[in-house]
Amino acid sequence: MSLPDTVKEGEPAVSSIIEPVKTGLLKSFRLLWLLVKIIVPISCLVAVFDYYGIIGAVAGFFSPAMAYFGLPGEATIVLLLSFFVNFYAALGVLTTMALSSQQITVLAVMIGICHELPMETVVCSYTGLPIPVSALLRLFTALGAGLLLNMIYILVGGG
Q1: Burial (Cβ within 10 Å: 0-12, 13-18, ≥19) of residue 88
Q2: Angle, vertex CA 62, rays to CA 58 and CA 64, nearest 5
Q3: Is there a contact between 150 and 70 (Cβ–Cβ < 8 Å)?
Q4: The pTM is what?
Q5: Using one digit for the tens of pLDDT, what is the confidence trace for 62-74?
Q6: How many Cα atoms are found within 13 Å in the side-chain-facing hemisphere of 43?
Q7: Within 10 Å of residue 84's Cβ, how many Cβ atoms?
Q8: d(CA 26, CA 31)
Q9: Exposed site from 26, 78, 98, 123, fewest CB < 10 Å?
Q10: What residues have CB less than 8 Å from 108, skipping those under 6 apart?
Q11: How far apart are CA 37 and CA 26, in angstroms?
Q12: In sequence order, what DSSP letters do the residues of 114-140 get, joined into one string?
């Protein structure tokens, strides 16, 4: 039986594991730090907005429209952040909300279809798809999917 290429004759196999584990841990901590730098400030900002009634005003304004998706008005902020900033900013707000698994599923589907519009529409433009077409296609597909998923939940008794 031969040794793997990463293990030298006479060297313990454990030492060949240390370097990849160390590299993986460093990458994990860098990613964790990136997420903390995004999620914590966004969560604090949302708490300030909530304290001053901004969240309530936005929620009240969008509640009638969000009801079609089975979502509370506050979910508008999650969607807007995911559409125009990124997943992690939306996640920061999402962690402050009390939502059902059904509501989180609807939000996740909508966010999965339409997220980071400013950056991803530019990327899509390299395929020849015009930026406005790409943005509107993703936006209306996300809205349609959210509406359809909520209708399915209602039909099967989940809504």
Answers
A1: middle
A2: 145
A3: yes
A4: 0.71
A5: 999 999 999 999 9
A6: 13
A7: 14
A8: 9
A9: 98
A10: none
A11: 17
A12: S--HHHHHHHHHTTT--HHHHHHHHHH
70's CB contacts (< 8 A; 6+ apart) are 102, 103, 106, 150, 153, 154, 159
Kindly state the tokens that stand for 140: 């209306």
**Length of the chain in terms of residues written:** 159
Residue 109 has pLDDT above 80, yes or no: yes
Task: Please give the Cα distance from 129 to 131 (Å, whole number).
Answer: 6
- The residue behind tokens 């209306």 is 140
Identify the residue whose tokens are 């009638």: 64
Enter the tokens of residue 141: 């597909």
Token digits of residue 35: 């997420």
